[in-house]
């Protein structure tokens, strides 16, 4: 009696499954290496919450860890088959967002402005266009930037504790501009929209810090602005 099912086809299926599992495991190995580097960078940056004099050195050390990630992303790009970025992207999406946040934090601490997606991609050795293959996804960039807001709200509070009363005002202006920028977007991604909704709490927290500093008369910048506003207009 002949078989109604050709059992040989299942051997081919098993080969496919084995190859798929091997590829995913190789991807996970590289992602774990990136996670380790990102963790080290984040540890270096935690000093900003307890010692403002160490900011420059912490940024330099974090940059070294971030730069090492570029090589790991090149390994990932070599593993992922052409045209299948989003099939495997769930493996590295979270850690990529975390690295975007860390890069954004370093750039803000060093220069006081928001890092662009293009600069982040360059630092990680990634492309900016999906057509070019392994790239930095726009939504990953935006989610990483939103993580920066939470860190800066914490930093604003700790800065006051360490006697820096001007920094919260600068952070407040920066986060205010960031909030305005995100409001220009029509966010359809549920995760991105929910994370953006949390931004208003970061804004409120920073505003409370600035208000507290202001009513206690601790900020010289606030005093200067009030004096300018109160000064009589020359006739």
TrEMBL record:
It comes from the Eukaryota. Gene3D superfamilies: Translin, domain 1, Translin, domain 2. GO terms for cellular component: cytoplasm; nucleus. It is found in: Cytoplasm; Nucleus. The chain crosses the membrane at residues 95-115. InterPro entries: Translin, Translin_C, Translin_fam, Translin_N, Translin_sf. GO terms for biological process: RNA metabolic process. It comes from Drosophila rhopaloa. One of its GO terms (molecular function) is hydrolase activity. Belongs to the translin family. Mg(2+) binds at residue 151. DNA-binding protein that specifically recognizes consensus sequences at the breakpoint junctions in chromosomal translocations, mostly involving immunoglobulin (Ig)/T-cell receptor gene segments. Seems to recognize single-stranded DNA ends generated by staggered breaks occurring at recombination hot spots. Ring-shaped heterooctamer of six TSN and two TSNAX subunits, DNA/RNA binding occurs inside the ring. Keywords: Cytoplasm, DNA-binding, Endonuclease, Hydrolase, Magnesium, Membrane, Metal-binding, Nuclease, Nucleus, RNA-binding, Transmembrane, Transmembrane helix. Pfam families: Translin. The gene is LOC108050175. Signal peptide: none annotated. The keyword Nucleotidyltransferase does not apply. This is Translin.
